[in-house]
C-alpha cells in the first residue's frame, strides 16, 4: 500500500531491476550481500506469516498478503524484523552456524589431516618404466 504511493515509481523499478540483474551477473561481493539481505527478508517473512496465521489468520497466504500490505498483527512485524536483523548480522560477522557437523569421506572431522592417505602425492607410487607407458 505505502510502496505504491511513493513518488518516482519508474526510478524505483529501474533500481530494483538493476539490483536483481547485478545479483546474477554482478560481482560476487554484491551477490553475497544481495543473497544475505534478500534471504533474511524472505526468511523473516516466512516466520512472521506463520506467526500471523496461528494468531488468527484464515490462510497462510492471506497472512503473507497481510504482512506485505501492512495490515497484519504487530507481533508478526516484530518477529520479521528480528529474523531479518539476525540473518543480516550473521552475514556481517561471518558466523557459521548449523545443526550438523560435517565429516569428510575418511571419517576425519578435521579435514582429513589425521592419518589420511591423501597426504602422499598422487604420482609418487606411479611406475614410470617404458613397459607401463601407453603407446
Automatic annotation (TrEMBL):
<feature type="region of interest" description="Disordered">
    <location>
        <begin position="106"/>
        <end position="135"/>
    </location>
</feature>
<keyword id="KW-0472">Membrane</keyword>
<feature type="transmembrane region" description="Helical">
    <location>
        <begin position="75"/>
        <end position="93"/>
    </location>
</feature>
<feature type="transmembrane region" description="Helical">
    <location>
        <begin position="33"/>
        <end position="55"/>
    </location>
</feature>
<keyword id="KW-1133">Transmembrane helix</keyword>
<feature type="transmembrane region" description="Helical">
    <location>
        <begin position="6"/>
        <end position="26"/>
    </location>
</feature>
<keyword id="KW-0812">Transmembrane</keyword>
<protein>
    <recommendedName>
        <fullName>DUF4203 domain-containing protein</fullName>
    </recommendedName>
</protein>
